[in-house]
Amino acid sequence: MKPVSLVLLMLFLPLGTVRAQSTGADPNRTQWWKEAKFGMFLHWGLYSVAAGDWKGKPYRGSEHFMLYERIPLREYAKLAESLNPTRFDAEFWARQARDAGMKYLVVTTKHHDGFAMYNSPSSPYNIVKATPFGRDPIRELADACKKYDLKLGLYYSLGRDWEDPDVPTHWPTKGGRSNLIDFPDEDAKDFSRYFERKVKPQIRELLTQYGPVGLLWFDTPELISKAQSQELKAMIHSLQPDCIINNRIGNDLGDYYVSEQQIAADKEAKLWEACITMSGQWSYSKYDHAWKSSELLVRQLVEIVSKGGNFLLNVNPKGDGSLPQPSIERLADIGRWMTVNHEAIYGTHPWEFTSEGVSEETLGEVIKKDTDNDATSKVIHPDLYFTSNGNNVYVFARSWTSRKLTVKSLKIGTKSVKSVLLLGAPNKPVWLQNEDGLTITFPKVRPNSVPIYVFKLTLE
Ligand code: FHN
User: Which of 41, 169, 260, 314 has the most ligand 1 atoms within 8 A of CB, as the residue to mutate?
Assistant: First the structure.
């Protein structure tokens, strides 16, 4: 059966809704994550070797192209013979994340194609056994994260695996994300066999081979049962009690919610993280030139943090292990901005007011697909966002072009402002609080590739 066409994949979801059900979030376990605010997502696998082409032609479906192009497993697996990422440098990846101000990274250990990007004794379909590379990149990344003080996060495709014969799916319809080329009888598939044969052994490997794992980032839980989600969560915490789990372990379990390619409409009662692409898709393709500007990426970071979320920004390494130059440039821009403004991000929490002057256009779309699914707005519009920490309020003047701004939420008689500083500026701004609000005149500022300025207000 052909994968359901993209038209049918259009799922309408309420704008930016992050489902507010209960999670078992343990405040001690999640403390580092709540303070971290910013992480690097890495989609790297056999699909990175193909890099947009299959049999000399551009493929459809990004990292799902095995399904979209109806490729038999044996043929797709031949990509492993070409996976020899001699330019892979775990320490370089870790430094890119650290220098951009990221505090954790999440890397694909096994995506939907079922290929393990780590040494998996339980499945020979892995980078150490099946490729000329012969090294274990997750081992090297775990060491690099330790060296550069990053938490290690591991992505695992839970309910989709196109190498195993027992993985039925139901997205968006029965069999919609299954390997029906090699395993056509969807009704013959028994998820429990896959769960026992592959999922549990591999999760055990991931939690016993690489030292402390800060976060297990499950994807596409599909048809996992509540009992299996509970069993998996118990096994994880029996091995690593401090390991955080996202809600895609399934069945409303997990420590926080994932908002994929969308930013929540407003601050959320629950812990949440927006995972968003830096370009047009999750995995590397030579045809993907839809790189977002550094300004837009910092706008997204600010908006997400102002709404109490974490930003997991995706980078898509090439098949040779190098990072695309446009991603390196953007990470450097973000790092320069964070060097000046990090105190307004880390360890902060939403203020009473989230924003002022936001244009409808900057709120993003509501339609989602399951790959190439970037529903975030690309509109650049001057507006204000806020975070707070104690009696400090941080005002983010996003894409600001004029030399004055007025925070209307701080009219005289509301909260009294004691001082105003512009982060990174040697001289103090002139400011006045009256019935219009708090009006600030910018001091002379250096032109910045990311024109998002942060004022630190100290309230009485
Ligand atoms: O199908 C995957 C997709 O390839 C990508 O990994 C994203 C990342 O969150 N998760 C799934 C789509 O929801």
Answer: 260
